[in-house]
């Protein structure tokens, strides 16, 4: 909604290039990602996710590179394929918002990737609990399944909470294992998209993101502090996405096709049964 509001705002008010939302560009997104880092504690995530961490890592890596491969086969522009692959493999909109400024994604590209992931997340919240009940999954199994197969953290928790409180706790804990992959994702994205530009500077917000994780690891923030930081992070992300929306150029939207949706659906169709088989039989 934030992106669409930005688009409508720019459309009706015919914003000049010097308008503040265009000048600040992706800075609010970067601030939001840095604050998000302060809610991640590496030792805690590794401890609680130890049983599933190897499988989570395998899912993340396999999904990400499968997305890039499918995108190449379908002839999708590599920025869109990179956004969708990152969103599907790690943590949906958060991952895409984190790498968008690094890969210099156009507002239209981020918009279509966000829209696709949003639609799949909306379906997941409705269909996953129904499927879990039909398949007779336990609370732990459903929480693990949601954490592995659904994209955005909010949708993971939403789906699991409909099933049971225990499922939500399991899902939130295991989802951290995927969120941690934001760190190598950001580094890989910078290396792939900026290595050819000798004058490109290493994105400073990546350093602050890692420092924020270290600070949380050292001080072990309690639940209240982390909840406050998550709220602040979401606020900056929402503002940042609004700014992205105001940079939208409708003339370039015609270059996009239905192929990105096919890519996201193909990844999801492969991940859902694979994740179910893993949590049910391993």
From TrEMBL:
<keyword id="KW-1133">Transmembrane helix</keyword>
<feature type="transmembrane region" description="Helical">
    <location>
        <begin position="229"/>
        <end position="248"/>
    </location>
</feature>
<protein>
    <submittedName>
        <fullName>Putative membrane protein</fullName>
    </submittedName>
</protein>
<keyword id="KW-1003">Cell membrane</keyword>
<comment type="similarity">
    <text>Belongs to the UPF0324 family.</text>
</comment>
<feature type="transmembrane region" description="Helical">
    <location>
        <begin position="260"/>
        <end position="279"/>
    </location>
</feature>
<dbReference type="Pfam" id="PF03601">
    <property type="entry name" value="Cons_hypoth698"/>
</dbReference>
<dbReference type="InterPro" id="IPR018383">
    <property type="entry name" value="UPF0324_pro"/>
</dbReference>
<keyword id="KW-0812">Transmembrane</keyword>
<feature type="transmembrane region" description="Helical">
    <location>
        <begin position="142"/>
        <end position="164"/>
    </location>
</feature>
<feature type="transmembrane region" description="Helical">
    <location>
        <begin position="176"/>
        <end position="193"/>
    </location>
</feature>
<dbReference type="GO" id="GO:0005886">
    <property type="term" value="C:plasma membrane"/>
</dbReference>
<feature type="transmembrane region" description="Helical">
    <location>
        <begin position="27"/>
        <end position="46"/>
    </location>
</feature>
<keyword id="KW-0472">Membrane</keyword>
<feature type="transmembrane region" description="Helical">
    <location>
        <begin position="110"/>
        <end position="130"/>
    </location>
</feature>
<feature type="transmembrane region" description="Helical">
    <location>
        <begin position="52"/>
        <end position="70"/>
    </location>
</feature>
<feature type="transmembrane region" description="Helical">
    <location>
        <begin position="205"/>
        <end position="223"/>
    </location>
</feature>
<feature type="transmembrane region" description="Helical">
    <location>
        <begin position="82"/>
        <end position="104"/>
    </location>
</feature>
